[in-house]
């Protein structure tokens, strides 16, 4: 089982979803993230991926939810709420949308993330007010 981490980046009462411009899921929106490297802690992987993919330093990380699915390979996905006051840059994505959990699935978004988005909806009133 491949371990994958992703981050729901919260800024100004909105969450970031980003469109992949590479690989078999090109054109899909996602929470930025990627595979955990051997011996790496999940939160360290998340901080590294957010730096590599968005060029931001994460100031606070909070566990949100997890799921399992299979696309190119079976994977276990852990999602964290992420907080940073830096502006993300487009490096591996070709579109950014700042949205709210109710509108994430208005766009093509990974079906594996349904449970993560439901968890985000539950905490949203607290998260968006206590950034
Ligand atoms: N980053 C990210 N990946 C997700 C999400 N939902 C979801 O099913 N995935 C899947 C897509 C991939 O099958 C898997 C791993 O993500 P990844 O970004 O490392 O994908 P990849 O295999 O193209 O990575 P790479 O080889 O280019 O490093 O997780 C999500 O919200 N964010």
From TrEMBL:
It catalyses: 8-oxo-dGTP + H2O = 8-oxo-dGMP + diphosphate + H(+). It is an enzyme of class 3 (hydrolase). InterPro entries: MutT-like (IPR047127), NUDIX_hydrolase-like_dom_sf (IPR015797), NUDIX_hydrolase_CS (IPR020084), NUDIX_hydrolase_dom (IPR000086). SUPFAM superfamilies: Nudix. Keywords: DNA damage, DNA repair, DNA replication, Hydrolase, Magnesium, Metal-binding, Mutator protein. Pfam families: NUDIX. Its cofactor is Mg(2+). The keyword Nucleotide-binding does not apply. Its EC number is 3.6.1.55. Residues 1-122 form the Nudix hydrolase domain. Belongs to the Nudix hydrolase family. This is 8-oxo-dGTP diphosphatase.
